[in-house]
Amino acid sequence: MDGTTASSTQLLRQINSEALLRFALQEQVFTAGEAMAATGLTRATVLGVCDGLVDAGWLEEVNDGAEAGRAPKGRPARRYQLREAAGVVVGLDAGESHFTVIVADLRGRELGKRRRSIDSHALGRAGRVRSARELIRLALADVGRDADDVLLTVVGVPAPVDAEGRSPRGGEFWQLMNSGFDPDLQGKVLVENDANLAAIAEQAQQPSANVATLLSGERFGAGLIVDGRLLRGRRGGAGEMRFLDILADNKPDDEGISDGFGALARKWARKRVQSYEGTTSLRRLPEEGINAEDVFQAAREGDPLAGDIIARLGVRLARIAVVLSSLLDIERVVIAGGIARGIDPVLEHAHSLLPVDSGLPLPELVASSLGADAVVQGAIESALTGIRHEPMAFLPRALQP
Fold this sequence. Notes:
This protein is of the alpha/beta class and about 400 residues long. The protein is built from twelve helices and 13 strands.
């Protein structure tokens, strides 16, 4: 066999292995016949590829006696399943004030989870990486795994991220958040913008061709799906929402354009609570202890100051929705993150402000059901997609002798 023929044979074997492994990643126990139907491969090829994947540590043959199916001529049908010990994926939400880690198996089932509050500015870049590594180690140990089990880790950061996992050099905050996780975590590592990961998580929950997922707790960012594709931009800046500076109402108590709804609700309430001329239940709380949840709860109870803040947030959201709808023909705007659980009053007010005579359908405004886990769930989904797309690029945990 000459070199060209050998190379072609090896390439064909890899293509067949990837096709069968993609099928196995989405199935429980399967027979060779089921794999043939799904992949279009012959029986001999399927059996040969399955044997190779068993030897490589991806699959295991199932021998369960009476429960095994039988081929038409009475031979026991050979049955396979993904080897549970082949590996795991890790998702890390590496936020400014918290880290959340989820360890999941190769079908996306959550195995373990850890969360830790941090002070990124005190830790610095190296400290953030050390803290991430330690939290991942603890989460793996909780479920009896270690770093050698990790096939892929996806890290979400509050910074624009290009296709290579880099953030623009111009932003000191962005460089702190995108702290250089890639070479310091075990196995393959992908770094992605946190709002993009939230959008990926929402797509897995409720697919939509044109949707904006707004991550709006402490900081504001958007993950944009247009015509079924995630928008990134040359430097990862799609969805950075810099247009909010132009849309700001220029009042003295407007905060930075990067502030999310959670931060704005808190800051506006603390700034106005003592000087507010009317009656407000927020005055009963320590001024520095007022948070966004307090404001939302007070608004639900009819508090006038909280109602004013909700109205201002609603105006802001309506403007954003109109811009996104006009420029990108977005059909749904999703508010994601921990703030989502109390955002309904803001959504209702914003929807009442949307123009009804624009000639285009109004975007739907909804709250995410994923809560504070939207980013880390998106990281897991992104990791699984990466493995399904090119499974042979990863090495399963070696078989024990």
